[in-house]
Design brief:
heterodimer; A: 132 residues; mainly beta; 8 strands; B: 348 residues; alpha/beta; Peroxisomal Thiolase, Chain A, domain 1
Chain lengths: 132, 348
């Protein structure tokens, strides 16, 4: 049962909320309780833009349970315009046409579900930034 | 004075052509395309549903409105394809926008007019002073049974509108409803696909209610068809709205921006709201727009909006409907379409 875990992660998955250290101004996604850079414990919530460029990626052809309908699909590390790198699935594209450096933007999508009667899990995913 | 302060839409990138569906069922694509005035339709990706389309459309609406989403006091999502039978889509939309927790929400259903039901409620709540801003979304990933006439048109898309009392892009001039109990289309509990009354969906259903709503709002406002710069009727196909429009004295220049069905299909609850969004993408200030939805069962909501000078200032803050409709399209063969729409039975 992933309900509590998914619910706890919803600020990150639904709104891409990150923590910005009030002392050294480094941004962490997901947020932290203690800044690993300066040890400060004060953070402000910032919403990430969801826009950035593809840093690196891999193509999943043998998908785990819950993701088989999406295969083949890409999972990549995206360097956001805020300067931080985050992991995400890349959808709405031919994964074999992706190249590092491609501009991407985030969209709200279904991640997977717990079968036909279980909870549906939503999250951000990345898509090629075509201005739409 | 109340009205629309921001709007946004979302259209999946996948399409299927009428020819591709007709090939599978041995139907005549030329007759279908001519009869329905329909060439292709949008298809949701496997990771898109009513909630994701609604959220992505609503984000653009909030962007154009230029407001803090925490100030949205009401969120209504109209759809006949809510992802859960019990658990609101509106909570997902509100949470994703950042409107929680001080927000009232409800999911609405009324076949293809659930979207304008939300618009009506949102506008009236703002007018009453109950909330500062209210969001209304019409979103659907509509279902058509394999081989049924609806399979050629049932498509996916969403339109969202933020309603407010200042910084309007389109002022609400008036609204009027026309509703009867007319069983032209339905889906029973646990049924996967809807059923419909075939030709009965025409004269006594769509045409009677659209005509009734138009006549009622023209009487109420003292306006006549030629007073409107633009008009949008619900679009179950490309034929019905054009037939009724011409019969009532409207002309092609009035519906040229709002008629999306020939290349979008019928997005059900998103249908006439998306036509309104496409019209707002092109309209100038101080122009009159008539919007009339239709939902089987059956009823029509009519709205008269007057655009403001703020409209051209905000429209480029988010993608236009035409761009979402005409660019970055990927055409599917029937097999992939059947997989995307979960029409293929797999072992559990």
């Amino acid at each position: 049962m992933n309900v509590p875990k998914h619910w706890r992660e919803s600020p990150q998955r639904y709104r891409m909320e990150a923590g910005k250290c009030r002392k050294c101004e480094r941004i962490f996604f997901p947020g932290r309780l203690v800044c690993p850079e300066c040890g400060h414990t004060g953070f402000d919530m910032v919403k990430l833009s969801g826009k950035g460029k593809l840093h690196t990626f891999t193509v999943i052809r043998t998908a785990p349970s819950g993701f088989t309908d999406f295969a083949p699909y890409a999972v990549g590390i995206v360097e956001l315009d805020e300067g931080i790198r985050i992991l995400g699935q890349i959808t709405d594209c031919d994964p074999d046409s992706l190249q590092t450096g491609d501009r991407l933007t985030s969209k709200f999508r279904r991640m997977n579900d717990e079968g036909k009667t279980g909870m549906i899990m939503y999250s951000y995913k990345f898509v090629p930034d075509n201005g739409i | 004075m109340v009205g629309i302060i921001g709007y946004g839409t979302q259209i999946p990138r996948f399409r299927i052509k009428v020819e591709e569906i007709a090939k599978v069922w041995g139907a005549d694509p030329v007759a279908l395309k001519r009869g329905l005035n329909l060439n292709e339709k949008s298809v949701p990706a496997p990771d898109e549903d009513c909630a994701t389309l609604a959220v992505n459309a609503a984000r653009d609406a909030v962007k154009r409105a230029g407001i803090n989403p925490a100030e949205i006091g009401a969120v209504y999502v109209g759809s006949e394809s809510h992802p859960y039978a019990v658990k609101p889509t509106g909570t997902i939309v509100s949470e994703a926008l950042g409107a929680c927790p001080f927000v009232h929400t409800a999911d609405l259903e009324f076949a293809c007019k659930a979207g304008t039901e939300g618009m009506f409620i949102a506008l009236q709540l703002v007018k009453a002073g109950a909330v500062k801003y209210a969001l209304a979304v019409g979103a659907d990933t509509s279902q058509g049974a394999p081989g049924d006439a609806l399979e050629y048109s049932a498509s996916a898309g969403a339109a969202a509108f933020v309603m407010g009392a200042d910084n309007l892009v389109a002022e609400l001039v008036d609204t009027h409803a026309y509703m009867t109990d007319t069983p032209d289309f339905w889906r029973r509990e646990h049924a996967h696909y809807p059923e419909h009354g075939g030709r009965f969906t025409g004269e006594p259903a769509y045409k009677k209610h659209i005509t009734g709503a138009v006549n009622a709002i023209l009487d109420k406002t003292g306006l006549k068809p030629s007073d409107f710069n633009y008009m949008i009727f619900h679009q179950p196909n490309g034929k019905f709205p054009v037939q009724v429009a011409k019969k009532m004295g409207f002309t092609e220049p009035q519906y040229r921006y709002g008629l999306l069905t020939p290349t979008l299909g019928n997005t059900y609850s998103g249908s006439s709201p998306m036509g309104l969004a496409a019209t707002l993408d092109e309209a100038g200030p101080d122009e009159l727009i008539l919007l009339v939805s239709y939902g089987s069962g059956a009823g029509s909501d009519a709205f008269v909006f007057k655009t403001t000078e703020r409209l051209p200032e905000i429209r480029d803050l988010a993608p236009k409907v035409k761009k979402q409709l005409d660019t970055n399209k990927t055409y599917l063969e029937y097999g992939a379409y059947a997989k995307f729409r979960r029409k293929i039975l797999k072992p559990e």
